[in-house]
Amino acid sequence: MRHSNNYLTAFSTILFSIAIISCSTGYNKHSDQYFEEGLLFFKRMEYSRSIESFDKVLELAPYGKDNNIVYYNRGMAYLKNRQYDKSIYDFTKALDTTPDGDKELKFDILVFRGNAYQKSSVFDTAIKDYSDAIDLFPKHKDIKHVYSSRAWIWSAKGDYSNAIDDFSRAIMIDPEFDPAYYGRASVWFKEKDFQRALADAKEAVKLKPADKQYEDLLYEIKSSM
């Protein structure tokens, strides 16, 4: 059986990687086959079929040692299928059964469950999941995305100070992280701090000139000055 480790944020693309799980831990060739099918359907963006395949794995091996990974992958498929409540359930099951030593997987689960809560507009719980992920793995290679995702929630809640702080942290980690400049510009704009908004919007456009939403924000800021 295999594990697809996908990282998804508001501004990042899906990365599909695979790690091997032994078949001697409660699985058989049929459950392994369904798991492989689930990964393949996910990669093909056939999320409902992916979910059905992972369902069969859990039916065939309800006490499999690595079912935390099955729940994680099915949660990913539910998330992509916009079935957020079911996604949250699966991520919670995966988190509860993942060993404490597997920080990488726990980090991913917290982030994706935070995404599901964010999509469900359960903002405070999403913030907690993102914060727990940051505390668990502060030097993770994708930590800038977590700060950025949490910043957008602060902004949606009207907490502009925390939003600016988180976008700024993301920029400190990666000074060429254009989504954070765009996000911070949008917050400065809401605060009517037009000079700072303009500077950040210009930087976002400079880093990614083909992005229309960056150009639109820059135009809106200039029009308001």
Question: What report would you give on this structure?
Answer:
This protein is mostly helical and about 220 residues long. It contains eleven helices and two strands; from the N terminus they run ββααααααααααα. The chain folds into two domains: about 140 residues, Tetratricopeptide repeat domain (Serine Threonine Protein Phosphatase 5, Tetratricopeptide repeat); about 80 residues, Serine Threonine Protein Phosphatase 5, Tetratricopeptide repeat (Alpha Horseshoe). About 70% of the residues lie in helices and about 5% in strands. It has a two-stranded antiparallel sheet. It is elongated, with a radius of gyration of 20 Å. The N terminus is likely disordered.
Topology:
Layout: E1 2-4, E2 18-20, H1 29-43, H2 47-60, H3 67-80, H4 84-97, H5 103-119, H6 123-136, H7 143-156, H8 160-173, H9 178-190, H10 194-207, H11 212-224
Antiparallel strand pairs: 1-2
Helix pairs in contact: 1-2, 1-3, 2-3, 3-4, 4-5, 5-6, 6-7, 7-8, 7-9, 8-9, 9-10, 10-11
